[in-house]
Each structure stands twice: as structure tokens, then as C-alpha cells.
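Standup notes
- DV: blocked on the single-chain target, sequence here:
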Amino acid sequence: MDVRRFAIGTLVGGVAVMAAGYLTFAMPPFRDFYAYAMSSGSATGVARELPLLWAAALGALSYSALVTFAIASRTSSLSPGGGIKIGAVVGFLLWFTADFMFYGISNVGSVMSTLVGPLLELVPGAIAGGVIAVVSGHIR
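- DV (later): unblocked, structure below
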């Protein structure tokens, strides 16, 4: 994969991650679940009233760059279904790592949110992987 495909895959993947993440985590029922998880224990009031969208966008770009890199590392052409699988695996492993590291070193969240988060992240990762595979397959 050349630089142009990598950059375009990262951008469209970033938009897909932000959109799918919003639909997955900011809409009911999981919005209320995470609001409770972020207020449990002694870590109350840690969620921002207004999220920093620029920071979330940078995180989404980094996330989609990782998915794009995983897709680009394949030697054969990739179908949208293959991109979905790669994106889901990358998303799960990325957030399994981050959530358990945060849980282990801080008092933010709960065991339940730490377990549920990576499973829910299968959705944005899969959508991003599928979109990246489709777009990178159409760029010449």
C-alpha cells in the first residue's frame, strides 16, 4: 500500500470510527451504562461535560491508521468481509489492552465496563475495517 492509500484509508477509517463509536457508545442503552461506570467507586465526576472532539478525532485517526496498517500488511487483495474481520480483531485487542491497563492503574470505570467495552468495540472496528478495505480497493 502506498502513502496515498494509507492516508485515504486512515481518513475514511477515522470518520467511520467516530460515527460508529458515537452510535455505539453515546446512544442508549450504553450511554447510561458508561455514565454509571464512570461515576462508580471513588472516581466520580471524571467524565467531561463536553467531550474534546479534537482529541477524540486524533484518537480515531490513530485507531484507523492501525487498522489500515493491518489491512495493508496483507499480501493479497482484501474483500470487505476480510477488512471487517481485521478491523474487529484490531479494535478488540486495542481496547482490551487500553481498558485493562486503565483499570489496573486507575480508579476509573468498573470491571463490567472493562469487560464490555472491548466487546462493543468490535462494531466500530469492524465498520472501519470494511470501509477501509472497500476504499483502498477502489483507489488506483
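- Follow-up: Residues 3-138 form one domain.
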